[in-house]
Amino acid sequence: MSNLQKNNQFSTEDVQIESLSHEGRGVARINGKTVFVSGALPGESVAINYTRRKPKFDEAEVQEIKQPSPNRVEAACNHFGLCGGCSLQHVDSDYQIAHKQAVVLEQLSHIGNVQPQKIISPITGNIWAYRFKARLGVKYVAKKNKVLVGFRERKNPSFIADIDECLVLDSSIGKRIAELKLLIDSLSIRSKIPQLEVAIGESESVIILRHLENLSTEDIALLDAYSIDSGIVILLQGGNINSVTTLHGSKPNFLDYNLPIEDIRIQFSPMDFTQVNPEINQKMVEKVVEFLELHNRDTVLDLFCGLGNFTLPIARHSHFVTGVEGAQRQVDGAIKNAEVNGISNAEFKCIDLYSDNIDYAQLSGKYNKLLLDPPRSGAKEVISSLNMDKIQKLVYVSCNPATLARDAGILVKEKGYMFKMLGVIDMFPHTSHVESVAVFDK
Ligand SMILES: C[S@@+](CC[C@H](N)C(=O)[O-])C[C@H]1O[C@@H](n2cnc3c(N)ncnc32)[C@H](O)[C@@H]1O
Q1: CB-CB neighbours of 210 under 10 Å
Q2: Rounded distance, CA 224 to CA 237, Å?
Q3: Domain boundary assignment for the chain
Q4: Which of 273, 309, 332, 377 to mutate to test the pocket of ligand 1 (most atoms within 8 A of CB)?
Q5: How is residue 385 annotated by DSSP?
Q6: pLDDT of amino acid 10
């Protein structure tokens, strides 16, 4: 008997759900103590089972829904609940994005003490098979004598979820998870493959198999046969990111995606950072270009520019743009992408934007507009140190509401910007990830 059972902590209780936590759990209050209830929605009356008691809050899961929410829907995926890839499939998509908008506004007010003057309609798209980039865990489980391929389990993130398909991944891979499990199980080094990386371009789907021991000739033949049969390109990664090769030891080809409205084609290597949702990416790039209100006298600074996803469209509408990025391979890719697209009014620099030793003089003075698209940790270092006197308009694309809120606070309270607009972006439907775009004016 576990300690929870001994202490009668598995007791069942009826509760009323008051709200939804940031990561999608129902929140109830029992005698003043907060209980996070997995699978419950605001307004619902549910019977719960406690799963964990802590001094400040408890955790529980739904045992029975007594009064369902009108926003509740049947989860489409059989693995929902087990798989940690999605946490919101039980809520309709309008509610999901409204919830994400509420999360961003709450964080802006709570952390940054700021609010936008205007909230634009969410940027939305397909809610299934939208994901073109993913890292899946792989594990040979001796006890089950099988290989698992998937995201982490929701309740036990140290385990890989035993799934056979994934409805949010592009179907070229999402429908083939069961096949991939069998394929890896058939390899002599099945216990030495910790993960696979998925990257999908406009015309090819790629899997990069990370392996900790060498594959045998038979293994290569099996992978080759599967690759021919499925049309999936299989690459091998025996060491660091530069060690990736085709099954036959040659350099992998580039993938590409298009930004049709700008007539831009972005080439990328399967190991590069690209936005996970190409349909939403196209809409997001268009909105960012619109929000920057570009004209041919503008000189724009695009920080955290990656392969030029925003930089090159910005170049089409402005006098000049500088893209700055910390990874040299991405900078090299961006330079190549500018060439491929015949763009000569863009330059790219490799700078670690979190370093204490940046020569800010090279980034200050000549720019009148700024785009920021940082990783989750945000852009505090840059906005605190950059001379922004001449920057009249700033657009900030964020994948983390907490750091956006902190940085928005600095922009408004210390740098003299007005917080003009905010919009949430449905980049990751059914998950608790929140993407948003914020516009600031001097
Ligand atoms: C959210 S991505 C955005 C990329 C690009 N704007 C796009 O839309 O594809 C963030 C980018 O920041 C880059 N990055 C991460 N750490 C960095 C650092 N310390 N200095 C500069 N760039 C960094 C990553 O390599 C990545 O390309």
Answers
A1: 19
A2: 15
A3: 3-67, 97-126+277-441, 133-200+205-252
A4: 273
A5: H
A6: 57
Helix, strand, or coil (residue 197): strand
CATH superfamily ID and name for 97-126+277-441? Vaccinia Virus protein VP39 (3.40.50.150)
322, β-bridge pairs? 301, 347
Residue 417, ligand 1, Cβ within 6 A: no
> How far is it, in rounded angstroms, from Cα 32 to Cα 259?
52
Query: Which numbered atom of ligand 1 lies nearest the CA of 397?
Result: 1
> 305: Cβ below 6 Å to ligand 1?
yes
pLDDT band at residue 32, thresholds of 50, 70 and 90? very high
Per-residue pLDDT reduced to its tens digit, 121-175: 999 999 999 999 999 999 999 999 999 999 999 989 999 999 999 999 999 999 9
If one looks up domain 3-67 in CATH, what number appears? 2.40.50.140
At how many degrees (to 10) do helices 93-107 and 401-413 cross? 40
Distance 306 CA to ligand 1 centre (A): 5
**In CATH terms, are 3-67 and 133-200+205-252 the same topology?**
yes
Mutation to probe ligand 1, out of 259, 303, 311, 325 (largest number of atoms < 8 A from CB): 325
Q: Taking the CB of residue 55, how many other CB atoms lie within 10 A of it?
A: 6
Residues labelled catalytic: 399
CATH of domain 133-200+205-252: 2.40.50.1070
The answer to whether the CB of 320 is under 6 A from ligand 1 is no
Chain segment 181-212, per-residue pLDDT in tens: 999 999 999 999 999 999 999 999 999 999 99
What is the DSSP secondary structure assignment for residue 404, as one 8-state letter?
H
pLDDT tens for 246-299 read: 999 999 999 999 999 999 999 999 999 999 999 999 999 999 999 999 999 999
Residue 214 φ then ψ, to 5°: -70, 145
Cβ(207)–Cβ(180) under 8 Å? yes
Does ligand 1 lie within 6 Å of residue 205's CB atom? no
